[in-house]
Amino acid sequence: SLTTDQLTEESRLAAPTPMMAVVLVWVVLTGAPNIRFNNPEGAFYLFIDHRDTGLDSVTFCKRLLEEQHVACVPGDDFGPSGEGHIRISYATSTENCAEGARRIRAFLNNL
Predict the structure, then answer these.
(1) Is the pTM of this model over 0.90?
(2) The sheet that has 45-49: what strands, in order across it?
């Protein structure tokens, strides 16, 4: 199986695609503590359930931005049922996706 670094390097050699980006984010975040997510069904976004962290969506997003310099959207911006979730975009380079996912994981590991 490929490591995250190998996957990132292979991604650099190929033309970037949204599928490569989401797979890279998936690989880095799989097994991270206190989150759950499903395979995205469209667009360039991943909706992550972080309720097990005990943080509300706005606090989670603010702390992630302050502590790891990663921006995300609080799930409650999409309605009351979105509370306890965040939305991240993978509509960027595979390198940015890998780094963002690593920072999200570091944030979760430090909670």
Answers:
(1) no
(2) 36-37, 45-49, 85-89, 73-74
